[in-house]
Structure formats: structure tokens, C-alpha cells
Amino acid sequence: MAVGKFLHEGENEIVINVYGSPRNMLGPLHITNKPLVTKDSCFCPMGDNYSQDYNVVSVGLMKPPRLIYFKD
Fold first, then answer.
1. Which of 18, 23, 24, 26 is closest to 62 using CA atoms?
2. 9 exposure class (CB count in 10 Å sphere: 0-12, 13-18, 19+)
């Protein structure tokens, strides 16, 4: 991914969010809390347990990301 147009002179910060779990593909997605155990009631939350937002679980990278400089 080209990020050059987002960089400025001096120190920059790049934030990477990785989502790569069957939990994020299959759900439960609209539950307000992140349950340790997924059961059938998690897939149809009601009342205060329901959120319109997608509630996904963050996962990690296998090794640190690298920035590669390409000169035009």
C-alpha cells in the first residue's frame, strides 16, 4: 500500500489494524461485549447486549511490518 502521500516531514505514526479470525467473519458481530465463549445466544443479542456497530476482535501480525522506500 502506498502511504507516501500521507507522510509529512518529521516523525510519522502508522497504525495497522489486522482482523483475521473466523470470529470476525462468522460472528457474533453485534454483541456489545466480547464473550470469551461463543454460544447461540451471542448471535441474537437483545436489549443492552445489542449494538448496531460491528464488534470485531483484533488479531496480531506474524512479524513487524516493513516500510520500503521507492524513489520515482
1. 18
2. exposed
Q: What type of residue sits at position 6?
A: F
pLDDT in tens, the chain (72 residues): 788 888 899 999 988 887 777 888 888 889 888 777 888 888 888 899 899 999 888 778 888 888 888 776
Q: What are residue 59's DSSP bridge partners?
A: 18
**What 3-state DSSP class applies to 59?**
strand
Measured CA distances, 35 to 1, 32, 38 (Å):
33, 9, 6
Q: How far apart are CA 68 and CA 58, in angstroms?
A: 25
